[in-house]
Amino acid sequence: MGCAPEIVNIPSKPTPEGFKIWVLANKGYILDFMWHAKDNKEGPVDLDPLFTEEGFSKTQAVVLDLLLQKDTKTEERLY
């Protein structure tokens, strides 16, 4: 594959090497996404620690974080 530091190896997958990305989508349209960094022992990049502090697993926290993302550009236009 290449030398990108984000490449992960998941042996149980048919193509074991690649990028791990969590995606929030609706009817085929990507609404938001979150990268997984291999070198980041925490897993998801820019995951809000509030959810894990409340007792959610990191996988659960990714779902909540993606669902509750705020579009700062949209908010700036509204005010």
Tell me what the structure shows.
- This protein has 79 residues and is an alpha+beta fold.
- It has one domain (8-74).
- It is built from three helices and four strands.
- The protein has helices spanning 49-53, 58-67, 72-78; strands spanning 8-9, 17-18, 21-26, 29-35.
- The chain has a two-stranded antiparallel sheet. Strands 3-4 form a two-stranded antiparallel ribbon.
- The longest helix has 10 residues, at 58-67.
- The protein is globular and about 35 Å long.
Percent of sequence in beta strands: 15-25%
Mean of all residue-level pLDDT scores: 79
Structural category is alpha+beta
Continuous helix count? 3
Low-confidence segments: none
- Number of domain modules: 1
Notable features of this structure?
single chain, 79 residues, alpha+beta, two-stranded antiparallel sheet
Layout of secondary structure:
Layout: E1 8-9, E2 17-18, E3 21-26, E4 29-35, H1 49-53, H2 58-67, H3 72-78
Antiparallel strand pairs: 1-2, 3-4
Summarize the structure.
By secondary structure, the protein is of the alpha+beta class. Helix content is 28%, strand content 22%. The protein has one domain (8-74).
